[in-house]
Amino acid sequence: MPPTRVPRPRPGSRRPARARLPDGHLANVYSAACPSRQALDRLADKWSVLLIGALEAGPRHFGQLRQQVDGISEKMLTQTLRSLETDGLVIRRPNADRTVSYELTPLGHTVREPMAAVRAWAERYIDDIEQAREQAGRQESGDR
User: Fold this and answer.
1) Which of left, alpha, beta for 18 (phi over 0: left; psi -120 to 50: alpha)?
2) Which of 21, 39, 103, 136 is the most exposed place for a label (fewest CB within 10 A)?
3) What residues contact residue 77 under an 8 Å CB cut-off, 6+ apart?
4) Three-state DSSP class for 20?
């Protein structure tokens, strides 16, 4: 696997520089052709957000992840772990007892904070979201 390139912040800036693509253009998630769009798609997936959160505390076995992330099927857990591994966010490590464990890579650790913020936002504002859904449902039924 090629070494993972972790963005470094510019001097005097808290915001990391955007990557420069092989064609010389800067990464731009608003461009359909930019590969950063695929990375955004991976990170925006609910199972990715939850699995990254589950791995924040350290390595976990497949069964532990399945228990911790309620509602994920074995198939979806396998697919998501493979995708996270392919994208360099998770590493699969064989253990001496013929089991495997999964853990965040250095690149995977860089997304812990933003993912934690997304999870915290969802938990904090779920009441507002539910109220908005109820109001929209009442308006829809009133429009009929």
Assistant:
1) beta
2) 136
3) 47, 51, 62, 65, 66, 69
4) strand
C-beta of residue 107 within 8 angstroms of C-beta of residue 6: yes
91-107 in b/e burial notation, b at 16+ Cβ within 10 A?
beeeeeeeeebbebbeb
- Angle of helix 46-55 relative to helix 112-143, nearest 10 degrees, comes to 150
Is residue 8 within 8 Å of 17, Cβ to Cβ? yes
Residue 112 one-letter amino acid: R
Token pair belonging to 135: 């109001």
CB atoms within 10 A of CB 65: 19
Residue 27 φ then ψ, to 5°: -60, 140
Task: Report pLDDT digits (tens) over 11-66.
Answer: 555 555 888 888 888 999 999 999 999 999 999 999 999 999 999 999 999 999 99
Angstrom distance (rounded) from CA 27 to CA 19: 5
Helix, strand, coil percentages in the chain from 3-state DSSP, rounded to 5? 50, 10, 35
